[in-house]
Amino acid sequence: xxxxxxxxxxxxxxxxxxxxxxxxxxxxxxxxxxxxxxxxxxxxxxxxxxxxxxxxxxxxxxxxxxxxxxxxxxxxxxxxxxxxxxxxxxxxxxxxxxxxxxxxxxxxxxxxxxxxxxxxxxxxxxxxxxxxxxxxxxxxxxxxxxxxxxxxxxxxxxxxxxxxxxxxxxxxxxxxxxxxxxxxxxxxxxxxxxxxxxxxxxxxxxxxxxxxxxxxxxxxxxxxxxxxxxxxxxxxxxxxxxxxxxxxxxxxxxxxxxxxxxxxxxxxxxxxxxxxxxxxxxxxxxxxxxxxxxxxxxxxxxxxxxxxxxxxxxxxxxxxxxxxxxxxxxxxxxxxxxxxxxxxxxxxxxxxxxxxxxxxxxxxxxxxxxxxxxxxxxxxxxxxxxxxxxxxxxxxxxxxxxxxxxxxxxxxxxxxxxxxxxxxxxxxxxxxxxxxxxxxxxxxxxxxxxxxxxxxxxxxxxxxxxxxxxxxxxxxxxxxxxxxxxxxxxxxxxxxxxxxxxxxxxxxxxxxxxxxxxxxxxxxxxxxxxxxxxxxxxxxxxxxxxxxxxxxxxxxxxxxxxxxxxxxxxxxxxxxxxxxxxxxxxxxxxxxxxxxxxxxxxxxxxxxxxxxxxxxxxxxxxxxxxxxxxxxxxxxxxxxxxxxxxxxxxxxxxxxxxxxxxxxxxxxxxxxxxxxxxxxxxxxxxxxxx
Length: 690
Known about the structure:
Layout: H1 9-21, H2 26-39, H3 49-70, H4 90-101, H5 106-111, H6 132-135, H7 149-152, H8 171-174, E1 182-186, E2 204-206, H9 224-240, H10 243-246, E3 258-270, E4 281-285, E5 293-297, E6 305-306, E7 311-318, E8 323-329, E9 348-354, E10 359-362, H11 366-377, E11 383-385, E12 402-405, E13 411-417, E14 436-442, E15 446-451, H12 454-466, E16 470-474, H13 483-487, H14 494-508, E17 515-519, E18 545-547, E19 552-556, E20 559-563, H15 568-575, E21 577-578, H16 585-595, H17 613-619, E22 628-630, E23 638-642, E24 645-649, E25 654-655, E26 658-659, E27 661-667, E28 683-689
Parallel strand pairs: 5-8, 9-14, 9-16, 10-15, 11-13, 14-16, 16-17, 17-18, 20-22, 22-24
Antiparallel strand pairs: 1-28, 2-19, 3-4, 3-7, 4-5, 6-21, 7-8, 9-27, 12-13, 14-27, 19-20, 23-24, 25-26, 27-28
Helix pairs in contact: 1-3, 9-17, 11-12, 15-16
């Protein structure tokens, strides 16, 4: 072909595929190829897979698109059906004359279908009463029922014309040089040993599960009256916190006329669908205002920051009943911290990650594997020498207590093995006698150019090495925004891809003390596209995996962690307005979440968030400030102390075709006497390059 005898098998298969796809024979393809290579200044004999792909994209597909647009589609005539003998009776001719007298053309008369007068046996009648012989599909089939000669003579049967993308890791991801780099941190001590040395497991559970964590919860099933009641309850609960400060027991109706400064409450909106600004603000009142709304004038405020859906309490006047002039805006209140300190007798290590857990160009889930490896590796392992023991019995994953020496730091020589004890019935929650390590990651977990999930693998490697007690992984795991996911050219379905990655994760950490918390994202293509999002449904139960909803508040031996996988910071950043000169935008956005007591206070929600207001009122709010608030976002990573609450944006394990970041957290124990609510002075956080 083209004077070339050694055309590769891949190129030959691709050319056959193009001929079949675009209905061209060898001669036509040769003409297209010669014309294409001449324009590219390439010799026709230089046949490569890349050039064939360029030919398809630039020439063949364009040519077919033009043909489809220009070629008129002939109207398919209605089938002409008479009787089995296809004969026109005298009565039918008379009927035609009547119809023709009313103006029906002879052409339309030819297309008119008729019910046959011939008596048809009941066994030939369809259940609808129509004669099966006359109106069955067989009556419109071609007379020849033999297969097409062109089809039977095909030589390409069994050829793969659309092979799936490689599941190997993205080259750009695997060649990264920034793995392990610290990109953001908040430390209360100088040097931190991130290798965890746990002596006992910690309790990890949902602090405020809400109804979204209920099995088989109904979502997007709300009535307008329930939605209104939920929105009104949020305003009412928020306003009640200010009654003592106001010295009053009620709020005025915002629609009424009042000339003296009075306290009002309500929800801020924009008066149109455009971008919110200082002149487009309106305030919708609660039940104290009968749901009325007025224009909001903030010209007398020196500083302000608003977004659509924000609940406020302020003081002002309404001289006309149409416009509320705000004179004072009460500062948002952060909910109280937990009353009791965490039960920590040793530092608490936490790893936090947010999906997607594979890069955008593969489904290898290598980023998830990398994160798990990080969690696994951060608990040091030593060789065990039992030569001095007279009797012993071990199994993989067994927890032991013994006495021995380690002269080199590499091998533990066990001299005495304490007998195992059956645990007593619990009286109080278990106390932590060591620091708590937590790893946190957020998806996507594979790069944008593959589905190898290599970044997930790298994260799993971290978990395997460091072995934090808790590993929080937020979605998306199978990202609906991934290019290959959107194309659908996959060897297996979406849920199978997810279940496979989770099974791999559980198998690697099966004998580890690390507790894995999976938080879904509404971007997970295999899961429910609603917020709040119900927990994942796994094919089997894993002892070390907790499926939590999004959002959720975790209780880790008294250390409270709040997390949501939705990018509330980015959504707030798009809708928020603030007074000129306002600084530290990221802190301000995070503070909105705290002072609004809600993981997603923005309303109306962003267009890509399927918000269920009834579930949000029940499962998206928090009455206790978490010690650690995780807000994964596409915005720049940060770690900040906001009102005593440690807020962290770990970003994502992957960003496009390159590796991203995850967070690791160390919590030191505090005594009951020294606990003041905030754990800011006992928590260290680092955001690390994957």
